[in-house]
From TrEMBL:
One of its GO terms (cellular component) is ribonucleoprotein complex. The lineage of its organism: Bacteria, Pseudomonadati, Pseudomonadota, Alphaproteobacteria, Hyphomicrobiales. It comes from Acuticoccus sediminis. Pfam families: Ribosomal_L4. SUPFAM superfamilies: Ribosomal protein L4. This is Large ribosomal subunit protein uL4. Part of the 50S ribosomal subunit.
Length: 220
């Protein structure tokens, strides 16, 4: 799959061939859903907490005598039905993370890249560098490329480019190491530099080799 390479100024910088095994797959919504769900569950803090009867600072004295009042039998005021009481079966700190095989995570990344390529939402640029760190100038360049809602991936993010882009709404800049399915799918356009393409190929090749080695060890 060949795609034109552009410059930030909107000019042409030749073409580049994208590997079919990474950018030419038929996207599967079920795999993308599993990976995104895994990502979002993993980032949940899980710090919600309610107090039990034993954790509430209150008197343990019996509210009133057991018999003769015509009212229900109660102990102290820490019971859940009273104001200031505990919470019955309330949440406790825990991890919301779920397991997902490495092969599925790897496949999800490939399907996300293929989904952008199939939907004409993939742009390749020569590099992501600016001479002057000016947000206004970079916004005009993005406008010329038709980028209003985009994720920009570079091999090594240029500090000046990242600083100029961080004030532009709905534009994210990440290195190849931070490439993930959720950020790819939440933006309309995926922008890759030449160095990012090399980095993605190396990253996926490394993960594939590690997965194959793990599978071989399991078979033995």
């Amino acid at each position: 799959m060949d795609i034109e390479v552009k410059t930030l100024a909107g000019g042409s910088a030749g073409t580049v061939s994208l590997p079919e095994e990474t950018f030419g797959l038929e996207p599967r919504a079920d795999i993308l859903h599993r990976v995104v769900r895994w990502q979002l569950a993993k980032r949940q803090q899980g710090t919600h907490k309610t107090m039990t009867r034993g954790e509430i600072n209150s008197t343990g004295k019996k509210m009133y005598r057991q018999k003769g009042t015509g009212r229900a039998r109660h102990s102290d005021k820490k019971a859940p039905q009273f104001r200031g009481g505990s919470k019955a079966h309330g949440p406790k700190p825990r991890s919301h993370a779920i397991d997902l095989p490495k092969k599925v995570r790897l496949l999800g990344l490939k399907h996300a890249l293929s989904a952008k390529a199939k939907a004409q939402g993939l742009i390749v640029i020569e590099d992501a560098k600016v001479e002057a760190v000016k947000t206004k100038a970079l916004r005009e360049q993005f406008k010329g490329l038709g980028l209003a809602n985009a994720l920009i991936i570079d091999g090594t993010v240029d500090a000046g480019f990242a600083k100029a882009a961080r004030n532009i709404p709905m534009v994210d800049v990440l290195p190849v190491a931070g490439l993930n399915v959720y950020d790819i799918m939440r933006r309309d356009t995926l922008v890759l530099t030449r160095s990012a393409l090399d980095g993605i190929e190396a990253r996926l090749a490394g993960k594939s080799a590690a997965a194959a080695e793990t599978a071989a060890e399991g078979a033995n």
